[in-house]
């Protein structure tokens, strides 16, 4: 084939022979297409790393908890760097696959591209939020497991049985009722807190709340089995007890119970005299006591030791009960409390394995020093023993007790580093 001689004149001549080409696209349309192409390139560069980041975060959400659970269940010791390499490899593979999809989608129209960009602006943030929630749940689960495995469960603080000064609110009054047991052997002091009333004395409050007592619910006998009416004259401190006409006090135990209950009331409220009436008339038949018109003040200076009383075998929390027997000193009382009184169904309130020395520090304070082998624990039984000691100390007119050599610094609410104030009243109960 003959070689062409491509000279400039010859090339120019050939170009003139080419058909004429006319561009029908306006300048405005051409500019718009150039801007669309430029925007696509720009969005493509932004979209690829954003989607890759979202995929990587999502993979972390799915794979990390799974691998943690696998480690826990199989006991695996996989090195942390191997896990990171595996995650990075998976994330890179997912990124490349997603880049191909993104490149295809970026060739669509401008409207479709804008929709894709809007979707990708939302999804990564949603994935991050979900990841945060998942890790929060995992952390909480791990904390719970740690607590279950390494920490002792939090136990509810054991509560004392008596009323203490800090229990009483400003507008409350403490009332203590002496209620017999079913055998009329022991008289259990039951203390309740009621709201004060401006126009009523404490004795009048005591009378008004007698009907609110729940003796049967507490496993005790009745305080007022004969439904007598009580009237108190505050001016001369005289209490009148009026029995119904049909009252039949036939047994000595009944008459003794009435006298004990009324004598306790007299001592608690400084009553000068108690008048006994039957249907408004002076006097009442009191069994072996015969016809009785009044009860005068009696000597109640005898000090008592406190014991445990359980109404039945199912009862777990004892009543703390003073035994009405003369005791010369608080030391003698503590010694007596280590022995139960079987005939009265009273249990020892100080165990045999708790020995201590008692020292009178002042007229108001006792010092109790436990022996080295004394079994002092922060449990209910020890708490009730401490309360029996405090109530007995109060019988001998001490206001506080200091416990030494306990090896623990807390029993229930009692801070053993400090002096413990004696209770205000024993055997706290709530009224409806």
Describe the structure.
The protein has 432 residues and is α+β, with helices and mostly antiparallel strands. Helices cover 40% and strands 18% of the residues. The protein has 8 helices and 18 strands. It has helices spanning 8-17, 27-74, 80-105, 110-150, 202-208, 252-269, 330-336, 380-395, and strands at 172-180, 187-195, 229-233, 238-243, 273-278, 281-282, 284-285, 291-292, 294-296, 305-309, 319-323, 346-347, 356-360, 365-370, 400-404, 410-411, 414-415, 420-421. Strands 3, 4, 5, 6 and 9 form a 5-stranded mixed beta sheet that branches. Helix 2 packs parallel to helix 4 (110-150). The protein is elongated. 19% of the residues are buried.
Looking at the structure, what is the overall shape? elongated
Radius of gyration, Cα only, in angstroms? 46 Å
Total strands: 18
**Terminal Cα separation, in Å?**
125 Å
Low-confidence stretches: 73-81, 101-155
- Helical segment tally? 8
Proportion in β-strands: 15-25%
Helical residue percent band: 40-55%
- Structural class comes to alpha+beta
Mean pLDDT: 78
Please provide the ordered H/E string of secondary-structure elements: HHHHEEHEEHEEEEEEEHEEEHEEEE
Q: Please outline the major beta sheet.
A: 5 strands, mixed
